[in-house]
Write a structure and sequence with these properties.
Length: 477
């Protein structure tokens, strides 16, 4: 008689220790991540120096969206298009998993979070049913963290925390649900008055944590990743916002030129009934009817020079050039233009740093996508795929060459005999997307099939025609 092993209804001491450690790390990083999010959304609080801004304009909020422009300009060049086997085998099984999880659209969101926060997480689990494909999700670092083994370059545990996300377990929106990822199981627990109550355990027995980290700007001593919104970017953004606020203040005080009147009597500022006019009524009067004084002198009327904001705008242009250097963007993307417009070649040359940054991000992010796909195959098949079978990720070219230039390069490669004319690599060099390349391949197969049918038809018709009979004279008889 065997006694079945019942799952624990509460966390063990080791599990509770891991959960407490990861939850402390998650809460510790929350403020920094919210600061990056504020700069990305233009909701940061600009520190006032308390010198040039009057108290009446303390609530004035100026926004410059340079951090968002810099992050999105880089993310827009990171387009994941397809997965395929490196040996050229049929990759329909990879496409099925990707389409079931809306992988390519979700990847753009994951890349955006990784560039903004410095990292993004990918979690892999089983589908809802036995016949369902594996579930792959992109998780924000605002809700997830993990413990990392630098020697093995693997995560040892991970935690995801959410509030109001326990509908699958019949929980109320106010209850806090945590998911603790461990090498052999995934634990779902809810916070109660008496502590953490386990509501489900998924014994996957993978031997590894099914969570991967997509880190941006890693270093050997910092595997967590860094945001593209660096302290330099935040400092220049604050300075430019204060300069814009200075322009707003100057518009309030010096938008209308100040006038002065010398030698006028008090009656000049009174209406017909002897009431004193307001300053505004006096200012907007188009004609100032002033009387001579007792000496017969006419009052002197003039206006001060209006405020010129061009000095402020030149400083903002300076900030735009500095910001373009920090973000690796062409200055025209930040609104800075010179009197002589740049040529097309000059614009492409100025995008060189941005293109190189995109290529580096593609290299780093590709590793995470490949490992996530291998993990999804592992969950689906119950065993890891062979290491000899490599998975490739297909990305769109991060540069922006013209179609004519790409086609010309592909044609020259074919003419030199380096590439076959009907190969898929030529289509990729020409700038065709993965869907377009598949359609071209299908059209080629149909064309080859039609040619084969025509050849067989012509041969069959030739066999059916009667052969001419030679006469005796022609045969030499």
């Amino acid at each position: 008689m065997t006694i079945p092993t019942l799952p624990l209804l509460s966390l063990s001491e080791d599990e509770l220790s891991i959960l407490t450690m990861l939850r402390s790390d998650l809460l510790d990083q929350r403020f920094k991540l919210e600061l990056f999010d504020a700069y990305f959304n233009g909701e940061q609080i600009v520190r006032d120096l308390g010198i040039s801004i009057p108290p009446q304009l303390k609530g004035l909020h100026t926004v410059i969206g340079w951090p968002r422009i810099g992050v999105e300009a880089l993310e827009q060049r990171l387009d994941l298009e397809a997965f395929r086997w490196a040996d050229g085998a049929d990759s329909s099984d990879l496409l099925e998993i990707a389409e079931a999880n809306d992988w390519f659209d979700e990847a753009s969101l994951g890349h955006l979070d990784a560039l903004t926060y410095g990292r993004e997480y990918m979690a892999v689990g089983a589908g809802e049913g036995s016949d369902e494909p594996p579930l792959v999700t992109f998780e924000s670092p605002m809700d997830m963290t993990l413990a990392w083994d630098a020697r093995l370059r693997l995560s040892t545990s991970a935690l995801r925390e959410c509030q109001g996300g326990g509908y699958a377990f019949g929980l109320s929106p106010e209850q806090r649900l945590v998911t603790l990822y461990l090498p052999m199981q995934t634990v779902y627990a809810v916070e109660t008055d008496s502590g953490w109550e386990v509501i489900d355990r998924d014994l996957h027995n993978l031997g590894m944590v099914p969570v991967l980290r997509m880190a941006n700007r890693q270093r050997t001593a910092d595997r967590i990743g860094r945001s593209e919104i660096t302290p330099e970017v935040m400092s220049i953004t604050d300075a430019a916002c204060r300069r814009l606020m200075g322009i707003e203040v100057a518009a309030e005080f010096f938008g209308a030129p100040q006038r002065y009147i010398l030698g006028a009597s008090e009656s000049a500022f009174q209406d017909a009934e002897g009431n004193t006019k307001s300053a505004w009524d006096t200012y907007i009067g188009r004609v100032l009817a002033l009387e001579r004084d007792e000496d017969g002198a006419v009052p002197t009327v003039g206006a001060f020079t209006a405020h010129d904001p061009s000095g402020q705008t030149k400083i903002i242009d300076l900030y735009a050039r500095i910001m373009a250097t920090q973000l690796g963007l062409p200055p025209h993307m930040l609104g800075y233009t010179s009197d002589n417009p740049a040529s097309a070649d000059a614009i492409r040359s100025s995008e060189g740093m941005l293109v190189k940054k995109a290529e580096r991000r593609i290299r780093r992010f590709s590793a995470t996508h490949r490992e996530a796909m291998r993990l999804a195959l592992w969950v689906r098949d119950g065993e890891p795929p062979e290491k000899s079978r490599r998975i490739e990720t297909v990305w769109r070219n991060p540069a922006t060459p013209t179609i004519a230039a790409q086609t010309d390069a592909a044609v020259k490669m074919v003419q030199a005999g380096i590439l076959p004319a009907d190969g898929d690599v030529v289509l990729e060099m020409a700038g065709l997307t993965e869907d377009q390349r598949q359609r071209v391949a299908a059209e080629r197969r149909r064309a080859r099939g039609a040619d084969l049918v025509r050849q067989l038809t012509s041969l069959s018709a030739a066999d059916d025609q009667p052969q001419p009979v030679e006469s005796d004279a022609a045969a030499g008889v």
